[in-house]
UniProtKB/TrEMBL annotation:
Domain of life assignment: Bacteria
Record Gene3D superfamilies: Aldolase class I, Putative flavin oxidoreducatase, domain 2
Top enzyme class: oxidoreductase
Species whose genome carries this gene: Megasphaera hominis
Record-given protein name: tRNA-dihydrouridine synthase
Amino acid sequence: MNVTAKPLVIGSVRLAAPVVLAPMAGVCDAPYRVIAHGYGAALVCTEMVSDKGLLYNNVHTEEMLHIEPGEHPVSMQIFGSEPETMAKAAARVEAAGADIVDINMGCPVKKVVSNGEGSALMRDLPRAEAIIRAVVHAVSIPVTVKMRTGWNEAEFTAPELAKRAEAAGAAAVAVHGRTREQFYSGHADWSKIAAVVQAVSIPVIGNGDIADGPSAGRMLAETGCSGVMIGRGAQGNPWVFREVTRYLQDGTILPPPSAAEKYRQLLAHFQALVAYKGAYTGLREMRSHASWYTKGLPGSAALRERLNRAESVAAFVAIVEAQLEQAVDR
Ligand SMILES: Cc1cc2nc3c(=O)[nH]c(=O)nc-3n(C[C@H](O)[C@H](O)[C@H](O)COP(=O)(O)O)c2cc1C
């Protein structure tokens, strides 16, 4: 299989490799984005940010605008249902220093779609296009759109939405090969991503079920897309970016990280999270990351339980350091 990857250019932003960290709420905060960037994610995406949260000065949403120097280029994702508020939010995102503004048209969550946001926009293409047009006019950075294939099997609207996005001035689209009704079940249908590639001239970034170099290579080869976006495969696994980038360069399959490497990275991630969000939040938010980092390691269930009970930074660090010592001795 030919895995030679071409450079991915999104408007004025040229990526070092066609390999992107997917936006993930609760995962892609600034500390994780810096880590993913360090392992080779050529573009990192933020958690989704509400347009209204930004405009009405919600403190939590304000914090989400923070970008670390070590994570560029970064794409900041906004969601909403009204062209005017989305345009204003996009201007805030540009002022915050984002390199790209991405519009969420794929979120399947009921609370979001019942407001006409996220994947609900795949059923209202004129409104979707008006939002994209308004955002493009409001900023000077490239605008991208992230979508699913459609609302359900019967409504395969992604090619039409992608065409409208292109007409409205979007620089690229990312397509997750599932419908809204699927949420995360079943498989991503990559043939639908291929159909979107056929429909437009702007770059299409393929997303859904990429776990390693070979699956990234297959996504590029089977769909003709211009880049790959990785979500769940990167949870507790920033190494996936190094593996995929290398595989796409020369077909080399790098060995997976050792247990010791995983514990070291878990510790570094924890320390960055505590420095960024404080001990209380850092300890709590690290629990899910820790369970992803340690998945499949010997004794991981018992370890997770102890980490979940750790009530101080020192206690958490001591538990991981003890594991690390054992892993190094082994
Ligand atoms: C925990 C979690 C949070 C997510 N949050 C977002 C989000 O904020 N915005 C978005 O566009 N997609 C979000 N997604 C969807 C992912 O970006 C991606 O499209 C999906 O997980 C499929 O890719 P994967 O198979 O590589 O995980 C989220 C997915 C997960 C698992």
